[in-house]
Amino acid sequence: MLPRLRDGTLDMAAVAADVGDFQSGEFRCQRVLQVQQCVVVREGHPVLRDPTAPALAALEWVATHPIGTGAQPRADAMFGLAGVPPPARVVQCDSLAALTLLRHSDAVGVFPRPWLDHPETRGIVTVDNNALRPCDLELLLLTRADVPLTPAAEHFAHCLARVAVETLHRPSGVHQ
């Protein structure tokens, strides 16, 4: 979405996670929601018996963005604060492939906590009581800084924020 937003073929990136892909001031950013993230594995994963930071870092990770080598300061901080180097083995893929890999392998990942309330994440559980603490995820509405929003776009942004908050606070198991 970002290249299309940059070249003007897209007016608005409906919701994007700020993982350092754009520079300060490049886009007008309206915060929609802040979401807690968590470390996740499949149910019954052997690491759940002793989920230490070194044990987790030694495993293969599944991510939608690069991890380590300075490419992801937030991921580097998560491992650095736990006193371990970033994982050496990382599979980078889209979210649906990540769900499948996590469910059917001994890989580790980081997901927004609200995802775990959806049927698509069945068989995936949080790794509690470990030293790896992922940063919260900021969900943003991005628009070009040099193009003012129309009244319709302003209304859409307001509705998007309202629906995102309502969805996040909906009781588990209630989906529309």
What structural keywords apply?
three-stranded antiparallel beta sheet; 5 helices; 176 residues; alpha/beta
How would you characterize the overall build of this protein?
- The chain is built from 5 helices and 8 strands; from the N terminus they run αβββαβαβαβββα.
- It is an alpha/beta fold and 176 residues long.
- β4, α3 and β5 form a beta-alpha-beta unit.
- The longest helix is centred in the C-terminal third of the chain and has 18 residues.
- The C terminus is likely disordered.
**Residue-averaged pLDDT:** 82
**Tally of individual helices:** 5
N→C terminal distance: 26 Å
Report the β-strand fraction as a percent range.
Answer: 15-25%
- Give the strand tally: 8
Radius of gyration: 18 Å
Helix percent band: 25-40%
Give a quick account of the main beta sheet: strands, pairing sense, barrel closure: 5 strands, mixed
Alpha-beta content class? alpha/beta
Strand ordering within the main sheet: 5-4-6-3-7
Poorly predicted runs: 172-176
Shape: elongated
The helix/strand order is HEEEHEHEHEEEH
